[in-house]
Amino acid sequence: MNKIIECIKSRRSTRNFLDRQITDNELNTIIECGTWAPSGHNKQPWFFTVLQNSEMIAELNLLTKEALRNYSKEEGIRKLGANESYNVFYNAPTVIIVSYEKNNITEESDCSAAIQNILLACESIGLATCWNGFVRSHFNSEEGIATKQKYEIPENYTPYYAIAVGYADGSPRLGGERRDNIVKVIK
Question: Is residue 66 part of a domain?
Answer without folding.
Answer: yes
